């Protein structure tokens, strides 16, 4: 049932830019949307909130012509429209900027901007003076100073995103749908995206903004719609509800705290299990030293390009240090491969779950059993029954929601994918867990579950190294915090409760003369997410 406050509905013109009325959509065994209605006016940005599985993706796929609604209607500028396919939606002015961008990496910026709009003549080609001038104008509109002859594979994620938006403007888009636009952007890149979006709003373009990062939604929108289990539960001005109230509407229950409290009965961090001394891998890792104790959650934060991920990749055997040492359980180790680190019970849950953490087209059981194949094989024959029994045990313990062990892991939500990745290392008996952005792309309800699992691991005496770009997450979950800046540990926070986000940012920001500033957020490898 909709919990729409009549006072919260904005005064809209007789012909809003977009109306989706009473949209319903079912799939076999699943009611994805039930009578969902949204309205978007020219020049405004509306937030679409909800957990994974709430119906957000289905709704925008209907708007984009990928799915057809079972019932309901779509109107643009007061006229009913139908989008039987994505091309029709694009021609009508709807542009969806997906989290996984749709540029052709091997083609230039110019080619991508005009892809699909080439002249039909036999001798026509992209690159006329008119097209070059138009391309420059488009990039100027989105505030991107990018050479037109650069290959898109050489652009940062933020630059690729600006090219996507410029391409949409070239198609005369009236409506932009941004799906998790900031998932792989630095804080500075997010601010630039916000600025560009406000400028586009000023030109009359409407936008739907979908993100699990609520702070961004609250900053850029004046109005939000929250979905839960395929229904609209509330539509209201963004500032009518506080953060906790919006979360409660989305998840259907009260979250007394955003982060689970530490169990008072849990033992204090114990003996040092991992020690890093003067670790170097120039230019990204410079004389990094720290200790990690059993039962400790050691947060690691810093700006993009500060060397966080490169450091833990060395510890996990994915990269090899130039100098320095890693001491595990009092013994110096040098891992040439991740396999060697795994054998020593060190596991890495990477930020890129789909690309590095899981075989996304393989089944849940295949992903779960991969690290323990040798343990369950005899004479080259895998004991699948033993594997399946173990998976079921972890499924119950971690509350993994899946259709079955043979279902593709790629069909699971981000939170459940993370649980599968965690389950395989639990089965292997890992002692040191390295989480790189453990809740990126995960909704607020699932985040809380991941936090509880991390807390439980620490309570069992596991050592946790947790990289996060979200400062509230670092402050709310860590026993101590390492702050990185330009490849070095620039600060250690022994008591996270005694500092603010501003204090952390100050430690993470380079201190140098303005005339010699090299902004780490503009690092040429920022597309690598760290």
Can you walk me through this structure?
The chain is α/β, with parallel strands linked by helices. The chain folds into four domains: 6-93 and 174-251, P-loop containing nucleotide triphosphate hydrolases (Rossmann fold, 3-Layer(aba) Sandwich), CATH 3.40.50; 106-171, no CATH class; 267-345 and 431-530, P-loop containing nucleotide triphosphate hydrolases (Rossmann fold, 3-Layer(aba) Sandwich), CATH 3.40.50; 360-429, no CATH class. It is 32% helix and 24% strand. The chain has helices at 56-63, 86-91, 109-113, 129-141, 157-170, 187-202, 214-220, 243-251, 308-315, 338-343, 353-357, 364-369, 373-376, 384-398, 414-428, 444-459, 471-477, 501-508, and strands at residues 18-27, 30-40, 45-49, 71-76, 79-81, 94-97, 175-179, 206-210, 223-228, 231-237, 272-281, 285-293, 297-302, 323-328, 331-333, 346-349, 377-378, 381-382, 432-436, 463-467, 480-485, 488-493. The strands form five sheets. Strands 6-7-8-3-9-10 form a six-stranded mixed β-sheet, with helices on both faces. It is globular and about 70 Å long.
Note the topology.
Layout: E1 18-27, E2 30-40, E3 45-49, H1 56-63, E4 71-76, E5 79-81, H2 86-91, E6 94-97, H3 109-113, H4 129-141, H5 157-170, E7 175-179, H6 187-202, E8 206-210, H7 214-220, E9 223-228, E10 231-237, H8 243-251, E11 272-281, E12 285-293, E13 297-302, H9 308-315, E14 323-328, E15 331-333, H10 338-343, E16 346-349, H11 353-357, H12 364-369, H13 373-376, E17 377-378, E18 381-382, H14 384-398, H15 414-428, E19 432-436, H16 444-459, E20 463-467, H17 471-477, E21 480-485, E22 488-493, H18 501-508
Parallel strand pairs: 3-8, 3-9, 6-7, 7-8, 13-20, 13-21, 16-19, 19-20
Antiparallel strand pairs: 1-2, 1-4, 4-5, 9-10, 11-12, 11-14, 14-15, 17-18, 21-22
Helix pairs in contact: 4-5, 14-15, 15-16
């Amino acid at each position: 049932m909709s919990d729409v406050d009549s006072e919260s509905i904005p005064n809209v013109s007789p012909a809003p830019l977009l109306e989706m009325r009473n949209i319903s959509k079912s799939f076999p065994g699943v009611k994805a949307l039930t009578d969902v209605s949204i309205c978007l006016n020219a020049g405004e940005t509306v937030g679409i909130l909800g957990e994974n599985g709430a119906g957000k993706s289905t709704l925008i796929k209907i708007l984009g012509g990928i799915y057809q609604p079972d019932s309901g209607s779509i109107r643009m500028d007061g006229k009913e429209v139908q989008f039987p396919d994505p091309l029709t939606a694009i021609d009508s002015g709807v542009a969806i900027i997906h989290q996984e961008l749709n540029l052709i990496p091997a083609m230039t910026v110019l080619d991508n901007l005009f892809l699909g709009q080439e002249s039909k003549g036999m001798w026509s080609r992209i690159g006329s003076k008119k097209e070059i001038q138009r391309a420059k104008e488009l990039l100027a509109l989105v505030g991107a100073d990018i050479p037109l002859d650069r290959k898109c594979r050489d652009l940062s994620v933020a630059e690729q995103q600006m090219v996507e938006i410029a391409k949409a403007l070239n198609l005369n888009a009236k409506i932009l749908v941004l799906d998790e636009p900031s998932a792989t952007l630095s804080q500075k890149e997010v601010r630039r995206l916000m600025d560009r979006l406000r400028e586009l709003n000023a030109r009359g373009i409407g936008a739907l903004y979908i993100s699990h990062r609520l702070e961004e939604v609250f900053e850029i929108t004046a109005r939000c719609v929250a979905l839960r289990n395929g229904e609209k539960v509330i539509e209201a001005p963004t500032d009518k509800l506080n953060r906790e109230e919006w979360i409660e509407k989305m998840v259907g229950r009260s979250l007394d705290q955003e982060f689970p409290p530490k169990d008072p009965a849990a033992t204090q961090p114990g003996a040092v299990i991992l020690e890093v001394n003067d670790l170097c891998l120039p230019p990204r890792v410079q004389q990094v030293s720290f200790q990690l104790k059993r039962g400790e959650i050691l947060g690691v934060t810093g700006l993009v390009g500060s060397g966080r991920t490169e450091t833990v990749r060395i510890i996990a055997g994915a990269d090899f240090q130039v100098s320095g040492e890693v001491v595990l359980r009092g013994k110096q180790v040098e891992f040439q491969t991740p396999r060697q680190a795994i054998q020593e019970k060190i596991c890495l849950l990477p930020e890129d779950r789909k690309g590095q953490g899981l075989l996304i087209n393989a089944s849940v059981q295949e992903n779960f059993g991969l690290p323990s194949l040798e343990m369950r094989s005899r004479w080259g024959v895998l004991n699948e029954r033993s594997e399946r029994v173990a998976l079921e045990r972890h499924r119950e313990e971690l509350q993994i929601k899946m259709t079955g062990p043979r279902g593709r892991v790629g069909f699971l939500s981000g939170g459940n994918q993370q649980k599968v990745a965690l389950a395989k290392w639990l089965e292997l008996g890992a002692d040191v867990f390295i989480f790189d952005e453990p809740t990126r792309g995960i909704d607020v309800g699932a985040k809380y579950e991941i936090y509880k699992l991390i807390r439980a691991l620490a309570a069992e005496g596991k050592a946790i190294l947790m990289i996060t770009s979200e400062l509230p997450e670092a402050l709310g979950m860590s026993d101590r915090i390492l702050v990185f800046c330009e490849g070095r540990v620039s600060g250690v926070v022994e008591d996270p409760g005694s500092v603010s986000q501003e204090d952390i940012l100050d430690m993470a920001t380079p201190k140098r003369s303005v005339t010699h500033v090299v902004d780490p957020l503009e690092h040429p490898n920022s597309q690598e997410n760290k």
